[in-house]
Here is the input.
Amino acid sequence: MNLTINDINDTKCIATILAQHVKPNNVILLKGDLGVGKTTFSQFFGEALGVEGIISSPTFNIIKSYDARLPFHHMDCYRLEGAEDDLGFDDYFYGNGVCLVEWPQMIEDFLPEDYLTIEILRVDEMRREMMIVANGKQSVQLLEVLNDEITKH
Ligand SMILES: Nc1ncnc2c1ncn2[C@@H]1O[C@H](COP(=O)(O)OP(=O)(O)O)[C@@H](O)[C@H]1O
Ligand SMILES: [Mg+2]
Here is the structure.
């Protein structure tokens, strides 16, 4: 599915719909250049999932976990480029929470089989293109729900 995002409110809307419908073990990969809006998307997502307080960029911590409707694991793997260490990713991916992963390209060997990929492209200051692709049954379901909800809006 391809979406045209006109401003930050559109980003919030997509992140919120996803947060309302994610299930345990959903994994969402966020791809796109620096500054395109991956962390912003994650913050809206976490907020809508019920995280209280501030969701900061996990660039320096790599993984940050929050309590919400479901445990929320926010990862930024940018600094893992070239690293071969498994930081115990399976505990996060298969631990009944939901994971959002910025820079998943850095941990390709450790990714689960089922994930939703959101690739964000910058069009201009405010506008973005989002290309959303599902791999696996759980993510196909999530994408179907997202599609239904967007059609309703
Ligand atoms: N439509 C949009 N969606 C998301 N962020 C946007 C949008 N328009 C402008 N921005 C701005 O772009 C920046 C994105 O930064 P950030 O989320 O940290 O990017 P990344 O995590 O991808 O490096 C923020 O300053 C945000 O306010
Ligand atoms: Mg970021």
